[in-house]
Every structure is written in C-alpha cells, then in structure tokens.
C-alpha cells in the first residue's frame, strides 16, 4: 500500500524512531504529492532538517537548545502557543494580507483604467486627465490609510470564537479568500467601477458647466471631479469590506475623503503665491460652487457600490459562510459554538464516512495486488483492528498519564 495514500486518509500519523533526514523526507513527500501547505515544529537540533523542508517552520525554545528556533520562521516558548499562532494570529493575518493585496489592486485599477477611457475621447494624444501631483499623491496620501486599517485593525470574529471553533481555520486552508477566481473578480470589479466613474460624470457634464465669469470647465475640471468620485468610491469600498470598526478605522476611511477635499481647496490656490501648477488655479472654487457636482457626488459612488452591496447582502442571506454565521451569533451576544456544532455535525459525519470508504478501498486494493481474495460480505460489516479502542471508556491520554516514566521497571 502506498504510504502517502494511507497517511492522507488518516487524521493523524505517528512515525516512531525516525532519523532527522527521514523527518525531512516525510515533509518533502507531502509537499510533492499534495498541494497542501506544510508546517513543521520542533525543539531540538534533530528537527532542523524537517523545519527547513516545510513551507513554514516553527521552533520551540527550551532545554533542547536554540538550534530549532534559529532555523525556524517563527519561534514560540511553549508548544501550547501553537493554537493561538495558527487559529488566531495566523488566520487573522492571512485574511488581512489578502484584503490588502486585493484592495490595492482594485483601487489602482479604478484610477488608472480611467486614463484608458479618456484616451478614447482625446484620440490617444497622450493628454492626461488628472494633474500629475494628484496622481502621485493618490497612493501616498488619499488612499493609503484604508488598506492600513484593513491590514492592521480588521478581523472577522473574536479570539474566543476562533479558539472554540477550529473549523474556522478551514477558510485559510482551502484558499477561499485568495485564488485566481477571487483575484479576477476584484480586477473586473475595478474595471466596472472605472467605467462608471468616468462615463457617468462625462454624461452629467456633457453640456459643460458655465460659471458667472463666462468661463467653462476644461479637462482638468472634469478630471478633478472624476478624481474626487474615485477617492470617495474606493474609500467606501474599504468600508464595505471592513468587519471590525473602531475609532482609528473611522479616521482612516472618512479622514482620507476629507483630506482630499481640504487638499484640493489649498492646492488650487498655491499658484497665487508660488508659480507652480497653474492649471489647478481656482478649480476648487469652480467645483465646490457647482450644484451638479454635489448631486453627482452622491449618485456616482452610489451607482458604483450598489451592485457590490446588493450582491454581498444576497450572498450572506442565501448562502452564508461559517464565518458569517459566527459573526451573526456574536452580534446577538450568543455563543456561536453551540449553533455551529449543530449546523456542521452532519458535514463532519459525512467526512468520516468518506474517510472510511477511502480506507476500505485501499485495503481491498492492496489485498488484491498481493493475491488475497477478500471475503464476499457487505461493506457495512467491514471493520479495522487497532491496538487500542478509540473513544473508549479510558482515553489514550488518561492511559499515558497513569504511567510514571520515572519509576523503575519491574525485573522479569
């Protein structure tokens, strides 16, 4: 029987009296035969090869020395800290990193694809729609705080829920939050928003805006309006995917929008004092005094994010995920572990049935390859013999603790 197939069908595998090189070979076997992300943990020098062979290595500092800790990616003081490292900090940081990556691509697609739509109107002459310093400050000032709040402050559920419901960790293992499909969904969503962010203002201002001085807006007039809508939309998009709100989160999202309005008001008056960026002079007065701007400031971001809001609401209502179930229970101040246990008990039973079928098929296949004809009996009557009864009256942990390894063995 193939060792990997048998090990993959089991919940746990114990390898006894294994050399350091064999430990590394077991890890390499799992890496080469499956798409799983491997983690190795050890506390001694004999675990260094295994730690370095795994995708993620964790070293434990203790009486065995610091060799494992020096070779590892992460170091903990006790083995029990692994639960918090994986289920709480690991799962949270994974989701935060995914949100930052996807959101960063999205907000840049929203702004820079608008230049492509503008090129169709200017005959691909190379004329830019936005002022050059505004383009440079987009990622530095006006949209830098929202991804910072997503990457540092956001989390899906409480620490207690993650420790009581280890099934929540499966979202990270299954890569549900970050894969090719999710990436292109965000990319196409950014392209869709860029379409609305450019063509809707162009439609609203197709007859130009004439002011009391007899002047009308130019390309930078419409460009700063589109830029304003873009900043507002991408900041509100960050608000839609935020699940943990606090004081700093509000400052990051609403403060970014306010910062752009203040910057535009100041920057449009700089040319009076310094001969710099003359094309921006007086634009803030024109934009802020235009009623169509304030009306479209409400309509354009609403049109962009309406589809996102409706889709998220329908998905959470019709087919909510396990994390979303937990969030709802936490909002009701109820213990989510009781609800989740009842909801997902059936799926766990199905998983055990599939594992039993896999082991049964492997045993029969191995016996056939050796020329042994298995008895003709229903699959329901087949069983497996183990050295100790599982889920018995006395658990294996209790049996081990009853034996004191410090006592001298009796003479035979």
Summarize the structure.
With 412 residues, this protein is an all-alpha fold. It is 61% helix and 3% strand.
Helix and strand layout, with pairings?
Blueprint: H1 3-9, H2 20-33, E1 39-42, H3 48-53, E2 56-60, H4 67-71, E3 74-76, H5 81-121, H6 132-142, H7 145-152, H8 159-164, H9 170-173, H10 180-204, H11 219-240, H12 247-267, H13 283-288, H14 291-318, H15 322-331, H16 336-343, H17 345-369, H18 396-401
Structure, explained:
This protein is mostly helical and 412 residues long. 61% of the residues lie in helices and 3% in strands. It contains 18 helices and three strands. A three-stranded parallel beta sheet has the order 1-2-3. Strand 2, helix 4 (67-71) and strand 3 form a beta-alpha-beta unit. Helix 11 runs antiparallel to helix 12 (247-267). The protein is elongated. The two termini are 38 Å apart.
Total beta-strand segments: 3
Helix content: 55-70%
Largest sheet entry? 3 strands, parallel
Shape: elongated
The average pLDDT is 84
The helix/strand series, from N terminus to C terminus, equals HHEHEHEHHHHHHHHHHHHHH
As laid out across the biggest beta sheet, the strand order is 1-2-3
Helix-strand makeup class: mainly alpha
């Amino acid at each position: 029987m193939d060792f990997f197939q048998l090990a993959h069908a089991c919940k746990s595998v114990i390898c006894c009296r294994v050399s350091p090189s064999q430990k590394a070979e077991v890890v390499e076997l799992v890496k080469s035969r499956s798409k799983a992300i491997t983690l190795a943990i050890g506390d001694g020098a004999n675990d260094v090869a295994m730690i370095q062979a795994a995708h993620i290595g964790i070293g434990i500092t203790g009486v065995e020395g610091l060799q494992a800790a020096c070779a590892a990616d992460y170091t903990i003081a006790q083995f029990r800290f692994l639960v918090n490292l994986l289920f709480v900090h690991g799962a949270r940081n994974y989701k935060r990193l995914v949100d930052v990556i996807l959101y960063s691509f999205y907000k840049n697609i929203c702004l820079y694809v608008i230049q492509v739509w503008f090129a169709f109107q200017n005959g691909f002459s190379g004329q830019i729609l936005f002022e050059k310093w505004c383009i440079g400050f987009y990622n530095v000032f006006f949209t830098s705080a929202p991804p910072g709040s997503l990457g540092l402050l956001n989390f899906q559920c409480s620490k207690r829920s993650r420790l009581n419901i280890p099934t929540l960790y499966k979202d990270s293992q299954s890569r549900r939050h970050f894969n090719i499909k999710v990436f292109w969904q965000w990319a196409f969503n950014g392209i869709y928003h860029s379409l609305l962010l450019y063509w809707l203002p162009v439609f609203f201002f197709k007859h130009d805006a004439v002011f009391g001085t007899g002047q009308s807006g130019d390309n930078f007039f419409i460009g700063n309006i589109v830029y304003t809508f873009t900043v507002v939309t991408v900041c509100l998009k960050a608000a839609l995917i935020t699940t943990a709100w606090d004081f700093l989160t509000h400052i990051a999202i609403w403060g970014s929008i306010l910062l752009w309005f203040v910057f535009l008001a100041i920057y449009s008056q700089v040319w009076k004092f310094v001969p710099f960026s003359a094309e921006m002079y007086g634009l803030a007065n024109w934009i802020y005094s235009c009623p169509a701007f304030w009306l479209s400031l409400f309509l354009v971001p609403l049109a962009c994010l309406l589809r996102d809001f409706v889709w998220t609401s329908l998905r959470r209502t019709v087919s909510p995920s396990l994390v979303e179930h937990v969030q709802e229970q936490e909002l009701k101040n109820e213990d989510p572990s009781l609800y989740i246990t009842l909801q997902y008990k059936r799926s766990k039973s199905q998983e055990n049935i599939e594992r039993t079928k896999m082991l049964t098929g492997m045993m029969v296949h191995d016996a056939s390859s050796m020329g042994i004809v298995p008895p003709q009996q229903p699959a329901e009557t087949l069983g497996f013999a183990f050295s100790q009864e599982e889920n018995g009256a006395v658990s294996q942990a209790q049996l081990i603790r009853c034996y004191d390894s410090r006592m001298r063995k009796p003479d035979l």
